[in-house]
Amino acid sequence: MSDKHLSSQFDADLNLISSKVLEMGGLVESQIITAMQALNDFDGEAAERVIVAEDRLNTMEVEIDEECSNIIARRQPAARDLRLVLAISKTITNLERAGDEAEKIAKRTKRLMEDGASRAVNIAEIKVSGEMAVSILRRALDAFARLDTVAAAQIVRDDKAIDEEFRAFVRKLVTYMMEDPRTISVGLDYLFIAKAIERIGDHAKNIAEFIIYIVKGTDVRHKSRDALEREALS
């Protein structure tokens, strides 16, 4: 991922933490897929697997962050290498938080099951946005592995689609609850789940922005999509 250095050990250190980020990302992706499976099938065992695996993500975040600190202390990286290490530290924070959102989906699914929630609420938008969230995270990790700013810019654009699915579901949910107040409790649980999925998309978008920061040296957080795209493609 990085240009060759005089120290082959430095290259090895950078490659190692980059590989660990991708490993952590793979676990988060699996967590989201399993959480959505639990929701779609009302599968309590799948939900429990997501909850149990959360501790592993927390451990990985701490371990990788510690290795980033060690590299900075030992190697004193500069320019792009320093940006890479800093971006990795921020990326794993976003991955851990995406894992938290998967855990929230699993816990809320278990609550729906325990409450004997019916399928009176059509959750088509949740299913679609869940598939989008998995896809956008997978592509963000692939773009990170290749430091592909063009792909990163596309991910930022595509996150908007998840936001639109979320807003569409909220509008539909409000209608359900107004027409039948008995659906309010179930509706709020589904709203919580939809928001968790939307946040997963946000974390994938953040990772994409870090890729542009590594390669271009520009912090594109809080910039408009058009400005970000110009920076990524310049």
From TrEMBL:
Pfam family, any one: PhoU
Main location: cytoplasm
Cited SUPFAM superfamilies: PhoU-like
Assigned keywords, A-Z: Cytoplasm, Phosphate transport, Transport
Sequence ranges assigned to domain PhoU in this UniProt record: 21-109, 130-210
Location of the protein in the cell: Cytoplasm
Gene Ontology cellular component list: cytoplasm
Alphabetical GO biological process terms: intracellular phosphate ion homeostasis; negative regulation of phosphate metabolic process; phosphate ion transport
Function summary: Plays a role in the regulation of phosphate uptake.
UniProt family annotation: Belongs to the PhoU family.
Subunit and partners: Homodimer.
Protein name per UniProt: Phosphate-specific transport system accessory protein PhoU
Provenance organism: Paraburkholderia silvatlantica
Taxonomic lineage of the native organism: Bacteria, Pseudomonadati, Pseudomonadota, Betaproteobacteria, Burkholderiales
